[in-house]
Amino acid sequence: AGEKLAMPADRRAGYARGLVAEGIAAWLLRLKGYRVLAICYRTPLGEIDIVARRGKVLAFVEVKARPTVEAGLEAIAAEGDRRIEAAADRYLSRQPQFVDFTLRFDLVVVSPRRWPHHVENAFS
Question: Does the global pTM surpass 0.90?
Answer without folding.
Answer: no
